[in-house]
Amino acid sequence: MKKSYRIIALTLMPIMITLGCGELGKVDQGRVIQFDKAKGTATLIRDKNTDPQNPDYSYLPPITYTLPADPQEMGPDPKVGLRLKLDIPKKEIVIFDPATRTIKTLQYNLVDQKENITKEDPLVFDKDKDKPKPFPVIDREKKTITLYSKKQQTLITFSLPDEYLALPEYTWDSGDEVRIYYKEVGKARRFMNVTKTDIFKK
């Protein structure tokens, strides 16, 4: 059902924008790699693909938008992450490297993998606290990273060379997917957090 919400939201947003504004602007979409609430800016890696079921977050350079001043035009604050793709069959993880401003594809060594893990599974959800368990988890002693992909319903633990274990935890997390309506490049008129938006919620 969540995927259905996402597809419908992506489909309807341009229509709602057109009806609400009376004139066409443009729409941008991507994953958030940096967010500054104080400055009112968000930086994203844009999706190269037009198919919402098969995104390709690899459009460089990253683009920074100033966010709408009107809270009515602004969705929930986005979560930041540098993970752009987890390719389980190939044992690859794709991240954005802020230091070099490039996208890197890393081959990992699989330690453990559990599939068909729903978001309510005790392995990823703390029933006592009634909230998801925090991921990713970096174990520098064992030199492993554990993360949960809700989209792929997979809990995975893998190892990487020591140099990558020193990177911040959010390197291995995926940033929220957002959709931006603009008329001038870099200035968002409307900001939709697709990851956190349920258009059917009353």
Provide a short characterization of the protein structure.
With 202 residues, the protein is mostly beta strands. It has helices at 2-21, 162-165, and strands at 26-36, 41-47, 57-66, 83-87, 92-97, 102-107, 109-115, 125-126, 131-132, 137-139, 144-149, 154-159, 177-184, 187-193. 12% of the residues lie in helices and 43% in strands.
Number of strands: 14
CATH architecture of the largest domain: Beta Barrel
CATH top level of the largest domain? Mainly Beta
Tell me the series of helices and strands, N- to C-terminal.
HEEEEEEEEEEEEHEE
Which class do the helix and strand fractions yield? mainly beta
Could you say which overall geometry the principal axes of the C-alpha atoms support?
A: globular
Strand content: 35-45%
What about the largest sheet?
A: 5 strands, antiparallel
Q: What is the share of helical residues?
A: 10-25%
Q: Could you name the CATH homologous superfamily of the largest domain?
A: Copper binding periplasmic protein CusF
What multimeric state do the chains show? single chain
- The fold-level CATH name of the largest domain is OB fold (Dihydrolipoamide Acetyltransferase, E2P)
Distance from first to last alpha carbon: 16 Å
Tally of individual helices: 2
Strand order within the widest beta sheet? 3-2-1-13-14
Gyration radius, in Å? 18 Å
pLDDT under 50 segments (min length 5)? 1-11, 15-21
